[in-house]
Amino acid sequence: MKTELKKALVKSARAMYKSLPILLGVILLISLANAIIPKAVYASFFRGNPIFDSFIGSTIGSILAGNPITSYIIGGELLKQGISLLAVTSFLVAWVTVGIVQLPAEAMLLGKRFAIIRNITAFVFAMIVSVITVVILGAL
Amino acid sequence: MKQMKNKNNHIRWWFLSVVIIAYLITGLINKNIIASSFIFFFSIIKKIILVFIAVFILMVLTNYFFKPRKLMQYLGKNAGSKGWLISIMGGIISTGAIYMWYPLLNELQKKGMRTAYIAAFLYNRAIKPQLLPLLILYFGLAYTIVLTIIMIVISILQGVIVEKFVGVGKSG
Description:
Strand content of chain B: under 5%
Order of helices and strands of chain B: HHHHHHHH
Number of domains of chain A: 1
Largest interface: A-B, 63 and 68 residues
Shape of chain A: elongated
Distance between the termini of chain B: 13 Å
Oligomer: heterodimer
Number of helices of chain B: 8
Distance between the termini of chain A: 58 Å
């Protein structure tokens, strides 16, 4: 039993060590992006066209990363500035489901094909989820 | 096989090196950006350190208790609705940054966890019960309920689609 536990410990420690450079790289990248891009910049990308804005919302949400709380705050601000709920929902969903910054880490640990297809489908689904949510809310 | 593993190891360290070079270049242009990046970096590290330890413990437990055959029963290709439920609930209750969970999912993937369940787990990471009050505060109760339910349903659909393209088992 002791040998089994030791084996499990060594195996897990080895896996964690292997992931360390990727995790550190991703956190460093997120920190750099956070310092470079001012929050006020986001609203300037939207044009007032619901379909185009939904695409832009999904794109910005995919590129940015970080705590979901930050996305709620930015999303709330965007709504106040008159950006449509459709675009803001795309932005919120893509923020938490798509990860361009984490893509190298995801590809290295879970497979390149998996990471690319998962992120592409999550990007498309961010827009679909926003349309369904807004339609249902409109009907409620 | 061994050569491929070594190549993967090198890529991991190259990735970190490239990021450090990006920092050095940015630092030469503007030192303030680097200073605020590091403040943010350490705030993240402080936040995730406990999750990192929790993930490590989970990995040890998984390696100790779940041998591939047993894990296949719960998360393998024949796990069915039990597998969906575990991956959806697992995604929802898991805390910390998404990338913290890649090493554990990598281990589970090697043991035979279905691709669709990994995708569903990652999608449901977006739903955080502890953050729902904040989402309600910003966007209202009806919005939060509708969005949460839709995202759970979509996570299954996404899992199925990703699996169609990638295959049931280990992806390359």
